[in-house]
Structure formats: C-alpha cells, structure tokens
Design brief:
The protein has helices at about 35-45, 70-80, 95-105, 110-115, 115-135, and strands at about 5-10, 15-20, 25-35, 50-55, 85-90. It is of the alpha/beta class and about 140 residues long. A hairpin with a 6-residue loop joins β2 and β3. α3 packs across α5.
Amino acid sequence: MARLLAIDFGTKRTGLAITDEMQLIASGLTTVLTKDLILFLKDYVSKENVEIVIIGEPKQKDGTHSDVELCIKKFIKELTNVIPTLKIERFDERFTSKIAFNAMIASGISKKKRKNKALIDEISATIILQDYLNKN
C-alpha cells in the first residue's frame, strides 16, 4: 500500500504528517515554510509512494470557510499543476490547533516547547490524518 500525507496549511508554515505503508498510524513528518512547500512535496512524492494528500479544510464554528481558504485553493491549483497524478482530498480541521496544544500540555511538554508553533502545526497535521483514518 501507499502512504497518506496530511497537510495543515498555514500562510507562513505548514505542518505535515504521514501514515505508515499499511495506513494504520499517523505520525508527524515535519513543518515546512509554506513558500517551500511545493518543492518539498515534489521531492517527497518522488521518493515515497503517496496515494492521497489530505489537506485540512479550516472552517469557522458556523461551518463557513476561514480566511486562509483562498490561499489553500491557490496552493491546491499549483500542486495539481506540478504533480497532476496526485490525488487530493479535503478534511475538516476545526479545532485541531487547540487539540494539538492541549495534547502537548497533557503529554508534559514544557511551556517553552509549547510556544513552538511549528510543533503545533505538525501535531495538528497528525490529528487531521488520524481523524481521516478513523473516519475512513
């Protein structure tokens, strides 16, 4: 089987998570500056067998799209042009950053490390991917 890759897209940096080849467990991969994301994905997909890229769909409490949605749509269009064979799916990511932060507290991560927004982005991507796995 191929891996699934999740993206917690941000305007400055983006968290990434990946599954094992059996698609059972989601693990944090890394955080990439968003300006370098397309190049990173192009390189990563050329080395790893990725079946689907799951991109978080940020929504407000009332279900409407958040402001970053326009940037995500632009990114998806660019990614599709660069890697046309890549299958892309969207998945609701409401509250993942808050859940990630709370998970960091619960796991005993120091206050200093909890200020690391890149770590929160990577954990958020992992939560998106694990939720996707659980739902499917």
